[in-house]
Amino acid sequence: MKSALVAVSLTTAIFLASGTALAHVSLSSGPGYADQTQEITFSVGHGCEGADTYSVQVEIPAAVVSVRTLNSDLGPAHVEFDAAQLVTSVTWKKPEASGLELDTSYYKLGLRIKVPNQPFSTLYFPTHQICKKSTGEEIVVDWVSTDPTDDTVEPAPALTILPKRFAGWNKFQVPVAITNLAGFFSDAAIVWKGDAAYSSNPTTAQLITQTAGVTALTSLAANDEIWVKY
């Protein structure tokens, strides 16, 4: 039966998109891949208290050393640098004449970045959203929390960083403890650590529980070695 489970993992192609709901400002482009250059997209789901979004400032984490901007329907991108000429923030601001009386628009803001070589980690982009009422009054919402358990502060857009991988089997050593396996292995057919296995595919997960000699893998400790099939 265990061999049948391995056979299933070899023939199953699975990709589950993130099921998290969009906040006012969130990263909607999916995970990042360690040490790769890719585009990421911030989605502005709605404005503030019925007012249209006027500007959005995204802080760039120090670990991101290469940033290229994209203009958006919200407005052109404006870049701020530090003394070393590294990008510290990007702001998209709507021209005054383009302001809307009501909160009716959905905006996408894009960056092309070099994702840090930090697999199995989460990178946060603290973000500041300014909305403007038809009266000219501004409303500021700060999306800056990096603690998922803190519901008193709005969450910062978060980029999950996955390791570089190849189609087929990959061997990894995880650098930190991982309790949320779905957050890092939702696109994996199966994950093995010794005789324990995990899959986000319900059919494969059921086979795991029904296979003699195999236990369900629910978490990983720092420095665990695992085999992952993509």
Describe this structure as you would to a colleague.
- The chain has 230 residues and is mainly beta.
- Helices cover 10% and strands 38% of the residues.
- It is built from three helices and 18 strands.
The computed structural class is mainly beta
The level-1 CATH class of the largest domain: Mainly Beta
Number of domains: 2
Principal-axes geometry comes out as elongated
Strand content: 35-45%
Strand tally: 18
The side-by-side strand order for the widest beta sheet comes to: 6-7-4-10-11-12
Helix and strand succession? HEEEEEEEEEEEEEEHEEHEE
CATH topology call of the largest domain: Immunoglobulin-like
List the helices and strands and how they pair.
Blueprint: H1 2-11, E1 25-27, E2 32-33, E3 37-44, E4 52-59, E5 67-69, E6 77-81, E7 87-93, E8 107-114, E9 121-124, E10 127-132, E11 138-145, E12 154-155, E13 158-162, E14 169-173, H2 181-185, E15 190-193, E16 196-198, H3 202-210, E17 215-216, E18 225-229
Parallel strand pairs: 2-13, 11-12, 16-17
Antiparallel strand pairs: 1-3, 3-8, 4-7, 4-10, 5-8, 6-7, 9-13, 10-11, 14-18, 15-16, 15-18
